[in-house]
Amino acid sequence: MRLVVTGREGQVAASLLEAGQGKAGMEVVAIGRPELDLERPETIIDAIAAEKPDIVVSAAAYTAVDQAEDEPDLAFAINATGAGKVAEAAARLGAPVIHLSTDYVFDGSASHAYVETDATAPLGVYGASKLAGELAVAAAGPRHLILRTAWVYSPFGRNFVKTMLRLAADRDEISVVADQWGNPTCALDMADAILHAATVLHGDKNAGAFGTYHLAGTGETNWSGFARHILDTSRACGGAWAQVRDIASKDYPTKARRPANSRLSSAKFADVFGWSAPDWRQSTEAVVRRLQGGQAPAG
Ligand SMILES: NC(=O)C1=CN([C@@H]2O[C@H](COP(=O)(O)OP(=O)(O)OC[C@H]3O[C@@H](n4cnc5c(N)ncnc54)[C@H](OP(=O)(O)O)[C@@H]3O)[C@@H](O)[C@H]2O)C=CC1
Ligand SMILES: Cc1cn([C@H]2C[C@H](O)[C@@H](COP(=O)(O)OP(=O)(O)O[C@H]3O[C@@H](C)C(=O)[C@@H](O)[C@H]3O)O2)c(=O)[nH]c1=O
Ligand SMILES: [Mg+2]
Description:
The longest helix has 21 residues, at 72-92. It is globular, with a radius of gyration of 19 Å. It has nine helices and twelve strands. The protein is of the alpha/beta class. Helix 1 (11-21) crosses helix 6 and helix 5 (160-169) crosses helix 7 (223-236). It starts with a strand and ends in an 8-residue tail after the last helix. A six-stranded parallel beta sheet has the order 2-1-3-4-5-10, with helices on both faces. It has a single domain (2-158, 184-219, 261-278), classed as Rossmann fold (3-Layer(aba) Sandwich), CATH 3.40.50.720. Bound molecules: NADPH dihydro-nicotinamide-adenine-dinucleotide phosphate, dtdp-4-keto-L-rhamnose and magnesium ion. It catalyses: dTDP-beta-L-rhamnose + NADP(+) = dTDP-4-dehydro-beta-L-rhamnose + NADPH + H(+). Its EC number is 1.1.1.133.
């Protein structure tokens, strides 16, 4: 099966390229700028058709949450119009599309872990543009899987794990918000889930499985708890460490508001696809160790 993923160096694309290498019968190809430029919709159909996908994974996106507040037109062009065109390209080629979306489509006011039928109400431009992207993907054809994930980290690209390790290298203390709750998700686990889902969907063996799903790391924490686990693991491997100080969101002003609770229930995906993510702590430890050159934690 030939899987074509958008975005070459993105966390999920890079993870899919790596995961695909070890899988017999699975070929993963990544496409990106300049051939495929989501800002230039006229590039999209040809760039995807040229790669002859059996399945398309739509992972490229505008992901700068604060910057999006200043560039709403660009965020919508990429995350809504561009995503819709990617799905249209897949539909024209008769290939299903697996499109990635975000927990930031929710406002965080619920007291439970969000399920797929909960009402969306994004707090910022990024979340609104991703929600518009979901609608555009769904409008392009029925053979889509929309996977809402959250708090993605990996050895690749930019992410919170790398930021904490970098800050710890030259600070004794890092202040981190403790009043936003969610599910840290390893992009390598997402890649595993996506390859699994692609196999389940291939050849329309399970056409009833198309639709929208939440898919995130197992277990929940807040950003401060996530930071503490990253740095404690780092210290155990002989790497940098800093004290993490709990603060409130109001003491960490940002352009975009973030949801206080964007925990996702991944139960529907587990039921339908028979796959669930490892505990976030376990995957975090693996990524921190890998970023530090693979040392085992000091005993
Ligand atoms: N990161 C996170 O915490 C979360 C991400 N998601 C969603 O998951 C998906 C994957 O995220 P992640 O891998 O972290 O993303 P990254 O930010 O790591 O990568 C985004 C990718 O999109 C590409 N891209 C950006 N603009 C364009 C464009 N105009 N044309 C073509 N490619 C473009 C980038 O290309 P280049 O390398 O050239 O810059 C990059 O490869 C996204 O849809 C995101 O919204 C959902 C929840 C959490
Ligand atoms: C660097 C830093 C961040 N923070 C806060 C800011 C924010 O509330 C939280 C996380 O910071 P980030 O900038 O990594 O978060 P953010 O960019 O909001 O991450 C989001 O990205 C998009 C793409 C998604 O789809 C979401 O699921 C989510 O992962 O931690 C601190 O409190 N202290 C710090 O030193
Ligand atoms: Mg960020």
